[in-house]
Design brief:
Shape: elongated
Number of strands: 0
Largest sheet: none
Order of helices and strands: HHHHH
Strand content: under 5%
Distance between the termini: 28 Å
């Protein structure tokens, strides 16, 4: 019938929404979940560092001559800040028209965060293995048996996993664009 053919023609030319299908729903969920988990983990590590620092120094405003480094001067603090910024961007992603452009900005921040985290982890490995045997510490100044057990390592894992999820979501968004 004629009305049915009109409907087919209108549907064929209509733009597809960015979150159709299982794949379109899985990638944003994975990205939000990983960034939120990274945020919680990073701030838990920073809070633990602040509590340790305050218990040792009696203030949070001391920067030099400290037993443990002030958490504000550690890479974990700045990684946690970046995770919060990313979390805001990821939650606001669906509210805008330019989803692809916004996701591209999120990916840029995730690349920066991933490079920052792995760079700090590699710096921590160098520091750990250049210290005398049994005296290796994390970036928080806490003695550790292995650099793998440090918050820097887990933060790098969260940034990397978030980046992979973000790239997959970006790819799915690009596929859904009308030709």
């Amino acid at each position: 019938s004629v009305p049915q053919q009109k409907r087919v023609n209108l549907t064929r030319g209509a733009p597809r929404r960015h979150n159709r299908g299982m794949q379109g729903k899985l990638f944003p969920f994975a990205q939000i979940t990983l960034v939120a988990s990274g945020t919680v983990f990073a701030w838990y590590a920073v809070l633990t560092d602040f509590l340790r620092f305050y218990a040792t120094e009696g203030t949070v405003f001391k920067i030099s001559d400290c037993i443990y480094p002030n958490p504000i001067t550690t890479p974990c603090f700045w990684g946690a800040i970046l995770f919060v910024v990313l979390l805001v961007f990821v939650f606001r992603l669906r509210d805008g028209r330019e989803v692809l452009a916004r996701q591209r900005r999120i990916l840029t921040l995730l690349v920066v965060g991933t490079l920052f985290a792995w760079g700090n982890f590699l710096w921590g490995i160098r520091s750990f293995y250049s210290a005398p045997s049994g005296e290796g510490t994390s970036c928080s100044g806490v003695p550790v048996d292995s650099p793998i057990g440090t918050p820097c390592f887990y933060g790098a894992i969260f940034f990397t996993a978030s980046l992979v999820a973000g790239l997959l979501y970006f790819r799915a968004l690009k596929k859904d664009l009308p030709a």
